[in-house]
UniProtKB/TrEMBL annotation:
It comes from the Bacteria. Residues 157-267 form the MoaF C-terminal domain. Residues 3-115 form the Molybdenum cofactor biosynthesis protein F N-terminal domain. The lineage of its organism: Bacteria, Pseudomonadati, Pseudomonadota, Betaproteobacteria, Rhodocyclales. InterPro entries: Calycin, MoaF_C, MoaF_N. Pfam families: MoaF, MoaF_C. This is Molybdenum cofactor biosynthesis protein F. It comes from Zoogloea dura.
Length: 278
């Protein structure tokens, strides 16, 4: 049986009905939060309403200035928020912030999709040029909230806690996937039911521990350029997150949509290898 690799826009349509995404919250509306990054940046975020924010670079590589974007905030646990928005001033770029208000720390994920030229490179060309197999890029930046950065702060750390686990995720009645977390940089996904049924692959991924049983998991797909990001709560057995990709294979517009699933640990396997460095 031949199965089509659908664009991310079609995946978003399939995930939308009767989905298990956490509802957006308005808890941050009216608040102003200043992010002090580990690398020296300072960016102030003013949450104007439940879905609109301004962000201002006070210190950093970018030119100082003010910009406004739409955002979505969900709350995976009390006091912890996942804030996600697309930067309209940059091509195919999103920002995802995990804000831990109780501990006064955060981690930011900046993701960028490849353009048509880069995405068209074959796997062999990428290997010859010593490039990653995926053209999707991500940066991970940590820091403190509303206070000068301190390395002693309880920052999110890279983790191996998920490695070896096989977890099934139910996104809605039709869409069901399983993940197998293989090692520090790779995981395998397999669509059990739904629009990509039968498709599977092994892709690049990243793991950070946010709290006890709460993890930030990010993956970057190489066949259809896709950035996925979810907070996995192994206490509530629930996820919240987003998927970013191109609406169609023509690279003209992007789709950035929320996802959420009920999780079920299917099993675990023994794993070996060196530990990640934070």
């Amino acid at each position: 049986m031949t199965q089509d690799w659908i664009p991310v826009g079609a995946l978003g349509d399939a995930f939308a009905p009767d989905n298990n995404t956490l509802p957006p919250v308005a808890d941050l509306s009216g608040k102003e939060i200043c992010l002090h990054f580990e690398n020296g940046w300072i960016i102030r975020h003013h949450f104007l309403s439940e879905d609109r924010l301004t962000w201002e670079v006070l210190r950093g590589e970018a030119n100082p200035g003010l910009d406004t974007d739409n955002y979505v905030a969900t709350c995976p646990r009390p006091g912890i928020y996942l804030v996600d928005f697309v930067k309209h001033c940059e091509a195919a770029t999103s920002v995802s912030l995990v804000l831990d208000l109780e501990n006064g720390v955060f981690i930011a994920v900046i993701g960028t999709l490849p353009d048509r030229e880069e995405a068209s490179l074959s796997m062999l060309e990428r290997i010859d040029r010593k490039l990653e197999l995926t053209g999707v890029r991500s940066s991970f930046l940590r820091g403190t909230l509303d206070r000068d950065f301190s390395p002693a702060a309880p920052l999110p750390q890279q983790t191996r806690d998920l490695i070896g686990k096989r977890i099934e995720y139910r996104y809605n009645r039709q869409e069901n996937y399983e993940h197998i977390y293989l090692n520090d940089r790779s995981y395998s996904w397999h669509c059990l039911e739904g629009s990509e049924r039968g498709l599977c692959d092994t892709d690049t991924c990243h793991y950070y521990k946010i709290g006890n049983g709460l993890y930030l998991f990010v993956w970057r797909e190489k066949i259809v350029p896709t950035l996925g990001l979810i907070c996995i709560d192994l206490h509530a057995m629930k996820t919240t997150g987003k998927i970013l990709g191109y609406e169609q294979h023509d690279f003209r517009s992007i789709r950035n949509f929320g996802v959420g699933a009920f999780a079920r640990i299917v099993g675990s396997i023994a794993h070996h290898g060196t530990e990640s460095q934070a």
